[in-house]
Backbone:
C-alpha cells in the first residue's frame, strides 16, 4: 500500500532535522545541564519547532522524563494546566499547583516540561513565571515553544537572571534547503527555483515537494519572508478541484474539522471522503479533537471565501454554529474548554477572539500587585481621580490588596492597574465606604447571587487614565483568565468608567449594558456602570448567544425556544397569562429548558444556579424552587419531571 502524502512529508521533515544538529545539541545541553532552568524557543509558524522537540524527546528519552503539553488543546487557566500535567505523568488529577509541582519534581531522573504552542498560554504567562515554575524542584527544566518572542518580564525580573535563556529557530540555509530538495528527487535547477520561492522555510519546502510530486510547477516571484507559507499554500491550492476546495474552505472555518461539523457544512459530500481528502494534505495535521488546518492556510482561505462568496461563508458558519452549540449542551464539564474554543473560532468579533486567543504581541505583562507597588498605584490614582474616589480606593487597598493587578512595562515599571474581585468576598466596610460598591451590592437581587458576580472596580493607565492604551488592552486580555477560572459559576460582570462613551460601542457588542440608575456621583463625576449578564450557562452560554446573534440564528427569538418561557421578559407564558419568576426560579427553569429531555443532576443545578459546590445539593432548596415553578406552570406542571436518584428533567410540551 502506498504511503499517504502526509506521512511522506512527515518523514521528510524528520530527515531534514539533520540540518538542525546545532539547535538540537544546544537543547540537549540545556535539558540535561545545570543552568538555565527555562528555555524559550521562538520561530515563525511552520519553521519546525515541533519536529525539533520531537527529536529532542527521542534523543534524551533514556536520561530524562519528558512531559509535554500542547497549548492549543489545554484551557489557559492554572487549574486546567495542572490537570493536564497530572494526566501526562499518570497521577490523579489535581488543581493544587503546589501539589502538582511536587509530583513533577519527585522523579529520580531529570524531568523536562515542554509547553508547546506557548502563544496559546499568554493568559498564563505571569502565573507560570511568578508562581508555578519557581515552585518546581532542581530536577525540572522547562521549554516554552512559541511563535512569539518571550515577554520582557522574563529578562528584566531579577529572580530570573541567569536562569532564563532563549533560542531563535530560523529557516534553512540555501545549501541545506538544496540538499533537502535534491535528496528527495528534485533536479538541481528545479530545486534552486523552488528554494528561491520558499526561502528555506521548512513547511513551504514540504509544500513545494508536494507540488513537484504531483507534477505541478512553481512559476512565481519569491514572497516576503513572513508570507512564504501563505504564498506556497496558494500555489498548492491553485489546481484543487471544486469539491476539494469546498472541503478545505469548510475545514478552515472551524478550529478542528470533525465528522459532525463537516456533515453539517457539506451535506452533499460523504463525510468519510471529506476527512480522507483532508488527511492527505501537507498543511493538515491530526489533533486530539479533530483535523487541524495550518493557520497560514486557514487565514487566507477564509478571507478569500468571505469576500468571493459571502452567502456560502455564512451558510457554513450557521451550520457549524448549530453543531458546536448542541455539543456544548450535551458536553460534560471536562469538555467545556473544547466547546468554548470551538465557539471562539467561529466568532467574528475580533475584540472577543483576541481576548481569549491573542495574536498581537504586547510588551506589557500583567501580574498581582506587590506590597511595594502601592506607591505607584497611589500616584496613578491621584493623577486621575478626585479625593472621594481616592478615599474609596484606599479602602480597597486596605481590605483587599489582592484585588489589585498591575500592568508592567518593558522595564518592570507599573504601567497601570486594575481591580477584580468576586462580589461575595468584598468586606462590608468597603461597601459601606465606597458608594459605587454599595450601588453594585444593592443591584444584585439576592445574597447568593454575589458568588456569581465579578466586580472590576477600577482600571487606570499611568499615561491615559481610562483612555484606550496598551495597558487597558492588557487588562481586558488578562481578565479572560479570571472568566475561565470562575466558570460555570460566573454570571454577572460589573465594571465602571467615568466616560461612558469611550467603550460603549465595544461593550454593547459584547453584551454589556449601561446601568446608570442609582449610580453614584463621586467628585462631581457620574461613575457609569456597565453590567454583563452571561446567563445561567455562564461564559459558554454568553459566547454561544453572541455567536447565534452573529450568524442570525437568534433572530429575536428567546434562546430557550420554549412556548412556556419568555426569556427576554423573564416570565412564564401559561394559557395566555404572564407570570413573573424570581431570580432563582428563572435560573433553574431556564437551565433545564436549555437542556430538553436531559436528566440534569442536582449538583449541576446547584453549581449553575446557586453557585455552590456539590455539598449543597443535599439540601431541600432545589425542591422548594421546583415546587414553586410547578405551581406557576399550573396545567403544564408535568413538563418538570423528577428523575429519581439524579435530579430533574424538562420535557417539552407536545
Residues:
Amino acid at each position: 500500500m502506498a504511503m499517504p502524502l502526509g506521512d511522506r512529508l512527515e518523514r521528510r521533515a524528520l530527515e531534514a532535522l539533520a540540518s538542525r544538529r546545532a539547535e538540537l545539541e544546544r537543547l540537549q545541553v540545556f535539558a540535561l545541564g545545570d543552568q538555565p532552568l527555562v528555555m524559550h524557543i521562538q520561530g515563525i509558524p511552520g519553521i519546525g519547532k515541533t519536529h525539533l522537540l520531537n527529536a529532542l524527546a527521542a534523543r534524551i528519552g533514556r536520561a530524562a522524563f519528558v512531559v509535554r503539553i500542547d497549548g492549543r488543546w489545554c484551557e489557559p487557566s492554572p487549574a486546567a494546566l495542572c490537570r493536564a500535567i497530572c494526566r501526562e505523568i499518570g497521577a490523579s488529577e489535581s488543581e493544587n499547583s503546589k501539589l502538582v509541582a511536587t509530583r513533577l519534581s519527585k522523579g529520580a531522573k531529570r524531568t523536562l516540561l515542554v509547553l508547546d504552542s506557548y502563544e496559546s498560554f499568554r493568559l498564563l504567562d505571569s502565573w507560570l513565571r511568578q508562581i508555578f515554575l519557581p515552585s518546581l524542584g532542581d530536577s525540572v527544566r522547562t521549554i516554552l515553544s512559541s511563535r512569539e518572542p518571550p515577554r520582557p518580564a522574563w529578562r528584566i525580573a531579577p529572580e530570573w537572571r541567569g536562569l532564563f535563556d532563549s533560542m531563535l529557530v530560523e529557516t534553512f540555509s540555501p545549501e541545506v534547503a538544496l540538499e533537502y530538495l535534491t535528496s528527495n528527487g528534485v533536479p538541481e535547477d528545479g530545486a534552486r527555483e523552488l528554494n528561491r520561492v520558499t526561502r528555506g522555510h521548512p513547511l513551504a519546502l514540504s509544500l513545494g515537494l508536494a507540488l513537484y510530486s504531483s507534477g505541478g510547477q512553481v512559476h512565481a516571484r519569491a514572497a516576503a519572508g513572513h508570507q512564504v507559507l501563505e504564498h506556497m499554500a496558494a500555489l498548492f491550492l491553485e489546481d484543487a478541484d471544486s469539491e476539494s476546495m469546498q472541503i478545505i474552505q469548510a475545514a478552515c472555518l472551524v478550529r478542528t474539522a470533525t465528522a459532525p461539523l463537516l456533515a453539517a457544512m457539506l451535506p452533499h459530500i460523504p463525510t468519510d471522503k471529506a476527512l480522507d481528502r483532508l488527511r492527505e494534505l501537507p498543511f493538515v495535521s491530526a489533533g486530539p479533537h479533530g483535523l487541524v488546518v495550518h493557520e497560514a492556510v486557514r487565514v487566507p482561505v477564509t478571507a478569500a471565501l468571505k469576500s468571493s462568496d459571502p452567502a456560502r461563508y455564512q451558510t457554513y458558519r450557521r451550520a457549524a454554529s448549530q453543531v458546536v452549540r448542541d455539543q456544548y449542551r450535551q458536553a460534560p464539564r471536562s469538555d467545556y474548554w473544547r466547546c468554548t474554543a470551538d465557539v471562539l473560532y467561529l466568532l467574528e468579533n475580533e475584540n472577543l477572539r483576541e481576548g481569549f486567543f491573542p495574536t498581537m504581541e504586547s510588551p506589557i505583562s500583567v501580574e498581582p500587585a506587590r506590597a511595594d507597588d502601592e506607591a505607584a498605584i497611589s500616584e496613578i490614582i491621584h493623577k486621575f481621580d478626585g479625593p472621594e474616589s481616592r478615599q474609596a480606593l484606599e479602602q480597597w487597598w486596605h481590605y483587599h490588596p489582592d484585588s489589585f493587578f498591575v500592568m508592567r512595562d518593558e522595564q518592570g515599571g507599573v504601567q497601570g492597574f486594575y481591580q477584580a474581585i468576586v462580589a461575595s468576598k468584598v468586606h462590608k466596610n468597603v461597601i459601606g465606604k465606597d458608594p459605587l460598591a454599595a450601588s453594585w451590592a444593592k443591584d444584585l437581587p439576592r445574597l447568593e447571587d454575589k458568588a456569581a458576580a465579578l466586580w472590576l472596580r477600577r482600571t487606570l493607565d499611568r499615561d491615559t487614565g481610562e483612555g484606550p492604551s496598551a495597558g487597558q488592552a492588557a487588562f481586558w486580555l488578562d481578565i479572560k483568565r479570571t472568566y475561565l477560572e470562575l466558570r460555570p459559576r460566573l454570571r454577572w460582570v460589573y465594571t465602571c468608567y467615568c466616560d461612558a462613551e469611550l467603550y460603549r460601542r465595544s461593550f454593547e457588542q459584547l453584551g454589556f449594558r449601561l446601568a446608570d440608575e442609582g449610580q453614584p456621583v463621586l467628585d462631581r463625576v457620574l461613575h457609569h456602570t456597565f453590567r454583563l449578564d452571561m446567563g445561567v450557562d455562564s461564559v459558554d452560554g454568553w459566547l454561544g448567544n453572541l455567536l447565534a446573534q452573529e450568524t442570525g440564528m437568534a433572530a429575536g427569538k428567546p434562546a430557550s425556544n420554549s412556548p412556556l418561557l419568555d426569556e427576554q421578559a423573564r416570565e412564564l407564558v401559561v394559557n395566555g397569562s404572564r407570570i413573573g419568576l424570581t431570580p432563582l426560579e428563572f435560573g433553574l427553569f431556564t437551565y433545564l429548558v436549555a437542556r430538553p429531555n436531559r436528566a440534569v443532576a442536582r449538583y449541576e443545578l446547584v453549581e449553575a444556579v446557586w453557585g455552590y459546590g456539590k455539598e449543597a445539593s443535599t439540601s431541600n432548596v432545589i425542591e422548594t424552587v421546583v415546587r414553586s415553578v410547578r405551581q406557576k406552570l399550573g396545567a403544564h406542571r408535568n413538563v418538570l419531571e423528577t428523575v429519581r436518584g439524579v435530579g430533574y428533567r424538562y420535557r417539552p410540551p407536545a
